[in-house]
Amino acid sequence: MYVYILADPGLYTAGYHDPRGQWCPESDHPCADDAAARVAWLNGGRPDERLDDLVETLSQDLAQHQAWARSELERLENQIGNREREIEALQERCRQLECRQ
């Protein structure tokens, strides 16, 4: 079974004790939470649930940003269409004025 220990101040080491009691390090981590997540994974558990929460939050944020981007694109396309119609109207007015001269 994998466990973690405080190897040095600010350094947590995940590993296991072999049958003779010898410590066998597997990985080092800067905090206990990271070491605990690694130990849970090494022991067959799920990856850190905080990662699942982060993925869910980022997915929601992405969906919101995509919706905003689609809305903004539609707004800008409408503005372009309005400007194109204004240009066409001005060009037509110029043609009419040229014909009068």
Properties at a glance:
101 residues, 2 helices
Largest sheet composition: 3 strands, antiparallel
Unreliable stretches: none
Roughly what fraction of the amino acids lie in strands?
A: 15-25%
Tell me the span between the first and last alpha carbons.
Answer: 96 Å
How many distinct domains? Answer: 2
Q: Calculate the mean pLDDT score and round it.
A: 90
Structural class: alpha+beta
Number of strands: 3
| Molecular shape | rod-shaped
Strand order of the largest sheet: 1-2-3
Order of helices and strands: EEEHH
Provide structural commentary.
With 101 residues, this protein is an alpha+beta fold. The protein has 2 domains: 1-47; 48-101. It contains 2 helices and 3 strands; from the N terminus they run βββαα. A 3-stranded antiparallel β-sheet has the order 1-2-3, with helices on one face. The longest helix is centred in the C-terminal third of the chain and has 52 residues, at 49-100. The termini are far apart.
Topology:
Blueprint: E1 3-8, E2 11-17, E3 23-29, H1 32-42, H2 49-100
Antiparallel strand pairs: 1-2, 2-3
